Batch of 2 targets.
Target 1
Amino acid sequence: MTGLSPLPSDEALGGGMLAALAGMPDPVGNAFADRFEQDLAARFTGRAAVAVSSGTTALHAALSAVGVGPGDEVLVPALTVVMTAAPVVQLGATPVFVDSDPDTLDVDYADAAAKVTARTKAIVPVHLWGRMGDLYGLRAFADGRGLAVVEDAAQAMGSSRAGVPAGTAGTAGCFSMKDGKILWSGEGGFLLTTDPALAAHARAFRSHWLTPPPGSRPQEQLAVNGRLAEPLAALAQANLRRFPSLLERRRTQTERVLRALAGARGLTPLRPAADEEWNHYAPLLRISLPRPRAFAEHLAHQGVPSSTGSFRLIPCDTRPPFTATTQAAPCRGAAEILDRTLALVLTERDDEAVLDRYAAAITREAASWGA
Ligand SMILES: Cc1ncc(COP(=O)(O)O)c(C=O)c1O
């Protein structure tokens, strides 16, 4: 059995951060972010990368760059966190929630097609838990209707489908580097695009439309401060350089838990599609026990963290900011997926003892879980 790849020393991770701190205050303030973007561009050939302060900001900048604005509608899977939909609202547009297929976790394109109107501008496929849907289906749907595709690849760094890496299938791909993500910098994010105009828009957007050099152009628009802080850019760059070992560590962690749970009562692993290269973001199990969501919550009380048990993930269309305005029927496929999926929350620091404790607790509690 292969063991977990080792954690880096604090010195190895902190060196770049100390260098960034030593250069502060820096009036231009993007030397490390620039280098991080260059490393991303080298990894994702043919794409420009724009580093930002969070995955939410990446989505905000990308949706702004594809022209989403007041009066527009954007198709968003209900199977997601609120951060996917919030930027749509901040731009004055309306998220229209679409359902997902419980068998594949992919967008339910029949439901999406029924919800397209003359005001639909874009679709935001979300690769939740690193799982990617069928990209041929996505392209056929979006291209045929002239929709921009802004991928929420916040959890999907390292995944690909039919050889296409997450974040490179659409008009723009958006990533989060919040701690817990496989590529992390504490807080942070970035977007990828092949479109130079989109990248230029995102660069201006993240910095209050202050396009460099300072004072060279009037600030044509209002935007946000969504820059990636320099010490975090240094950390992101260090982690990007060791990304293969980060990815390998997460794969080993997830496989260890799933292997230990083989035969556990009422729990079946969710396996990726045949053409899917999954980043193993989270051990995923279908719960066929009575009251599955209550089971996940019970596990959280036993110290086993999961998306639904600990973070109470519910379909986005049922969250209070949207229930007042949403007229459509609830997205039942998304609800079924979230009620029945145990998605464990892992971090890089989880070692074999932690993983084995999770598996033992799940096996024990599943065996005695009653109706
Ligand atoms: C699927 C998804 N979308 C968007 C986000 C937002 O990213 P951030 O927290 O970096 O703003 C997250 C973060 O957890 C996420 O998991």
Target 2
Amino acid sequence: MEVLEYDIVILGSGLAGMRAALQAAKASNDQLRIALVSKLHAMRSHSVSAEGGISGVLYSGQHGDSVDLHGYDTAKGSDFLGDQDAIELLVNHAPSEIKLFDHLGVPWNRDKSDKITLRAFGGMSVPRTAFAGDKTGFFMLSALYDSLLSFSNIKIFHEHIATKLIIEKKQFRGLVAMDMATGEMKAFVSNAGIIATGGFGRSYGFTTTSYSSTGDGHALAYEAGLPLKDMEFIQFHPTALIPSGILITEAARGEGAYLLNSDGKRFMENYAKSKMELAPRDIVSRSIITEIEAGRGIKDERFGDTEFVYLDMRHLGEAKINERLPNIKEIAIKMIGIDPSDAPLPVKPACHFTMGGIHTNIDGNVISGPKGVIVGLWAAGECGCVSVHGANRLGSNSLSECVIWGKITGNAAARLASKGRPVSDEVIKNTLAAEEKRIISMIESDGKENPYDIRRDLWRTMDAKVGVYRDAKALTEAVHEIGALQKRFAHIGLGDKGRVYNTNLKDTLEIWNMLLLSRAVAECALNRRESRGAHSRKEYPKRDDKNWLKHTIVTLGDDKNKITYGKVKITKWQPEERKY
Ligand SMILES: Cc1cc2nc3c(=O)[nH]c(=O)nc-3n(C[C@H](O)[C@H](O)[C@H](O)COP(=O)(O)OP(=O)(O)OC[C@H]3O[C@@H](n4cnc5c(N)ncnc54)[C@H](O)[C@@H]3O)c2cc1C
């Protein structure tokens, strides 16, 4: 066991975590010691797989675009649940962040006059998404990683999985993490911490997200008694490749790809006549499920027994596909042996993004309860809910959120950390010792339950009962089934009893986190008796602003979680009927 002292500890090395580290390092003039802790090698963070691009108004006036229009699109896309002060902040800061990454070396696609090319994305009125082919996340994360390596005061702890936050009297004190390579437990003592652990899309079986997207940061905060916000809002991306669930980026439709049903018809004209395939994701996903349920889905035994629709990009031509969507082409050929220049791709909605997260104020400062914040603790990126995406995120707004709130929280952490050095004391040592004991007893557990069976059953429940369309019966069953899985978890047994690279243990810690969060999702979804954005209740098909224009706030309870509601901030854009 080891106790390490740092001025700032950042948990997570995706775009949000790395951007926070860069900002904190710049703001600290090389003076502050910064630890970047990641359960993966930093460059394997999920952000690396972001494909389509990052939104921001680079050329105001082009196609009639403006920062205000970006704000309106985002508020409308959120089904008016997004906090509009945060949305304004997002759209105002996005252009300068894209330019920063230009300076850091991201090879944005450019036109002949060297201007950064912008592509269309769902729910955006005009093209305003900058991109680097269809590997935008990879290029942005590489650029950040290269920059961080030039700071001698940043230490990256690759493959260290955090297991506990240390919070005392509403003050952040540090965290405990396990070094995967040795199994050693380490306490990182710090007055300033930023959680940037990404989403929890892996709580579903059919998902586009990485295996590492298990919501650990959410769960650590939740277990520390902190509230989570808007957990019922899960984004289903319309076009995940059958049967793996690998994403076919919305950029494919942005470049002009069509969706076709079994009659070969572009069915989106029945659901969103003006936007067609580029309606927001919640609408396109519902339309696909509706087509399949109406008997207009397609079956092909080569791809298993799931029904799907076609994503057709043949008319784009090979040259455009090679230039704009090379990654998609490679994925389709490798995974199912189909070249999208020659044949349409089988696709279906899959869990893709989690709008809900750790409840923060507009500065990313973690809220402690009904009143006040945790001093010295921030959350940024997909794990935080600030909330810009409300009930439905628009594609390409997440990368903007990650880097903007990475910057904001990095600055805030540096300001606070410069006021005094952290001290380790009995609280830290006792917490570390208790965590060591807990981890050892987990390794030694020899119960009959295999954690992977529990995960498989969780995936079945989430896919079948907490999907695109929901109803009270299915959600009630889901709550009970997840509760039963939590009870089974008490009787797990681990096959791997070692401490070196015990991935069996890591997976088990993650499975518990997903159980906790999935239960919160199902309970919050059951409570919200309206349809808004990505949350579609069959019995309540309409949005109900009178009763439900409010954020869900959930805190962990022993048997049932406590759910309360909070105000949505409306500044410029009054709620209106959402038509596309
Ligand atoms: C396939 C795909 C493509 C996407 N494409 C786009 C796009 O083009 N544009 C867009 O705007 N959005 C896109 N998104 C969404 C976007 O990629 C994510 O929301 C964003 O990358 C999340 O970044 P993050 O920094 O919050 O977290 P992540 O990149 O998920 O990083 C999380 C970090 O936390 C660490 N971590 C987690 N738990 C622990 C723990 N217990 N201990 C230590 N470390 C931990 C991980 O190691 C990792 O470093 C896409 C999503 C998917 C699934």
